[in-house]
Design a protein that fits this description.
By secondary structure, the protein is of the alpha+beta class. The chain contains four helices and six strands, in the order αβββαβαββα. It has one domain (2-131): Aminopeptidase.
């Protein structure tokens, strides 16, 4: 299973020029979490997803927001993606707060993996407007 997941992630980098990064603490070299962009298919639509997950010891330190901001900059400015989707369980308020801090707009609720989720979207235009980016 690990081998399959690794091959899938490496294939994302080869095909799309982006994927998932792993992050480590500068101070302790401990694994902090992972974050990045990946292509997914949701409801028959191809989307680019911002995905992030941190180890519990690193929650509530602003790291998910910091990592995601740089990933979004690369995706929306350098790669010129038209939009990025981000989603989480309806009960995960902390993750929803991260999305809102980053400028994502609520799009809809729905099921994913047979669980209730909220879906947020950030467009390149909205990013540019809030980050003084020349289009």
């Amino acid at each position: 299973m690990v081998d399959r997941a690794l091959r899938w992630n490496l294939d994302l980098w080869d095909r799309h020029g982006f994927g998932i990064w792993v992050f480590f603490s500068r101070e302790t070299s401990e694994f902090v979490g992972r974050a990045g962009l990946r292509r997914v298919e949701l409801d028959g639509q191809h989307e680019t997803e911002l995905a992030y997950a941190l180890m519990p010891d690193y929650w509530s330190q602003g790291l998910a927001t910091e990592m995601s901001r740089e990933i979004l900059r690369a995706g929306l400015e350098d790669l010129r993606l038209s939009s990025v989707l981000c989603y989480t369980l309806t009960t995960n308020q902390a993750s929803q707060n991260v999305m809102q801090k980053l400028g994502f707009t609520f799009e809809r609720t729905g099921d994913h993996a047979d669980l209730p989720h909220v879906f947020y979207r950030l467009t390149r235009e909205a990013w540019a407007a809030s980050h003084d980016v020349t289009r």
